[in-house]
């Protein structure tokens, strides 16, 4: 098959994935579609049950060498798709507005190359991971019994980046994306008749103090941190009742995992002080916990050299991105790198209803991964 025919096939496959998005934890059909594509490539092994719906294809070399893992994400977002593209999502309220369809297509393109040209040394494992958007998927893959069959020496992933020139490779040593977590504070007081609020115990004042105080915590911390209040609820819509319950939800964000531990401690301490002063009961819970993605030097050098050899423009950023990515779970275990590929300066932003992964950057994504494989496994 000619390179032009391969690209046409990959683009058509990307549009099929785009049309049939599934949210985190529900990627059953997406996983089956990927499995069918991979089976046609006749890999040396298919590894299933990598967490819910996770799947990997293994391509072996004939000599001893490193195991190189490439990761793509299966999940889409609960965001209605806007616009009038021909391959628009057929699943109401769900869309690939983060570009994971493009990431899958790129890694599948690498698979097509490996089907024709096996690595000489070691092996290459293409991993398709569930539930990246909720921060659960990477951990589910790593905890699965079948992940023991992989044990990578290197792990790589890319993310498309609107706001950067198409095909520009965005690199950073150390922290690349932020750590973040969702914090939920439940407050319990006592209801009373609205005519006699003095007989109840309303969380209203404590909620106000929390909303203001939590957002001010970063001002007293030395490293970058951010607290964003995303939701608050006081009582029920009942004009005859003084509220007895409340809830405050916030996103905590830092560039370093150590800073996240400090921010979490201060947020919990502030909550305890305010609640004690108010006489309320409280509970704190967390969800969507992402660790910072920390890039290692050796894989950084590999991708940087590959970009130069392919004559792709590089952009070396100074500060990590504020958004989060659960690839940090892989970066804790092995030499790893998450890098960006420009999606166009005028491209709609990620998680926006008009976003559609630009097919023009697929060849560069495939080429970067193929060149890294050549450097490590040939």
What's a concise summary of this model?
It is built from 9 helices and 16 strands. The protein has helices at residues 3-19, 28-40, 100-116, 137-143, 204-216, 257-278, 297-309, 328-331, 362-377, and strands at residues 45-47, 55-60, 63-73, 121-129, 154-162, 169-171, 174-177, 179-188, 192-193, 225-234, 241-242, 245-254, 281-290, 293-295, 314-316, 335-344.
Keywords:
alpha/beta; 2 domains; Aminopeptidase; 378 residues; 4-stranded antiparallel beta sheet; Alpha-Beta Plaits
What this model shows, in words?
With 378 residues, the protein is α/β, with parallel strands linked by helices. The protein folds into two domains: 3-177 and 292-377, 3-Layer(aba) Sandwich (Aminopeptidase); 179-289, Alpha-Beta Plaits (2-Layer Sandwich). 32% of the residues lie in helices and 28% in strands. It is built from nine helices and 16 strands. The chain has an eight-stranded mixed sheet. A four-stranded antiparallel sheet has the order 10-12-8-13, with helices on one face. It has a two-stranded antiparallel ribbon with strand order 7-14. Helix 1 (3-19) packs antiparallel against helix 3 and helix 7 crosses helix 9. The chain is elongated. The two termini are 23 Å apart. The model has no long low-confidence stretch (mean pLDDT 97).
What is the CA-atom radius of gyration, in angstroms?
A: 23 Å
Q: Briefly note the CATH topology name of the largest domain.
A: Aminopeptidase
Low-confidence stretches: none
Strand segment count:
16
Percentage of helical residues?
A: 25-40%
**CATH H-level homologous superfamily name of the largest domain:** Zn peptidases
Number of domains: 2
The strand line-up of the biggest sheet is 1-2-4-3-5-16-6-15
- What count of helical segments does DSSP give? 9
Structural category: alpha/beta
Question: How large is the share of residues in beta strands?
Answer: 25-35%
Q: What is the class of the largest domain in the CATH system?
A: Alpha Beta
Question: What characteristic shape results from the CA principal axes?
Answer: elongated
* Span between termini: 23 Å
């Amino acid at each position: 098959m000619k390179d032009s025919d391969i690209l046409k096939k990959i683009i058509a496959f990307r549009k099929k994935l785009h049309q049939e998005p599934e949210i985190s934890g529900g990627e059953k059909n997406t996983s089956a579609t990927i499995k069918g594509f991979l089976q046609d490539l006749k890999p040396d092994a298919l590894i299933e049950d990598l967490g819910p719906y996770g799947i990997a294809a293994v391509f072996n070399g004939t000599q001893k060498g490193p195991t190189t893992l490439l990761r793509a994400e299966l999940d889409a977002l609960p965001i209605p798709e806007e616009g009038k593209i021909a391959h628009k999502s057929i699943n109401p309220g769900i869309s690939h507005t983060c570009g994971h369809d493009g990431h899958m297509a790129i890694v599948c393109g690498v698979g097509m190359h490996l089907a024709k040209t096996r690595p000489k040394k070691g092996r290459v494992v293409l991993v398709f991971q569930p539930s990246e958007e909720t921060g659960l998927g990477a951990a589910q893959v790593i905890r699965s019994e079948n992940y023991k069959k992989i044990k990578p020496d290197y792990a790589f992933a890319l993310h498309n980046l609107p706001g950067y020139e198409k095909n520009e490779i965005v690199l950073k040593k150390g922290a690349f994306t932020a750590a973040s977590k969702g914090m939920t504070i439940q407050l319990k007081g006592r209801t009373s008749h609205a005519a006699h609020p003095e007989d109840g115990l309303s969380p209203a004042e404590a909620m106000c103090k929390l909303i203001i105080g939590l957002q001010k915590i970063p001002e007293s911390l030395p490293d970058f941190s951010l607290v964003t209040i995303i939701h608050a609820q006081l009582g029920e819509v009942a004009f005859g009742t003084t509220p007895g319950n409340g809830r405050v939800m916030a996103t905590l964000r830092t560039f370093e995992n150590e800073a996240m531990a400090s921010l979490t401690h201060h947020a919990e301490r502030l909550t305890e002080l305010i609640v004690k002063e108010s006489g309320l009961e409280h509970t704190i819970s967390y969800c969507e916990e992402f660790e910072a993605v920390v890039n290692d030097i050796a894989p950084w050098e590999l991708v940087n050299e590959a970009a130069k050899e392919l004559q792709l423009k590089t952009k070396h950023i100074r500060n990590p991105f504020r958004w989060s990515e659960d690839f940090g779970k892989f970066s804790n275990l092995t030499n790893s790198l998450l890098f960006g590929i420009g999606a166009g300066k005028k491209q709609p932003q990620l998680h926006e209803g008009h976003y559609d992964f630009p097919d023009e950057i697929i060849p560069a994504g495939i080429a970067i991964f193929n060149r890294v494989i050549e450097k490590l496994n040939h």
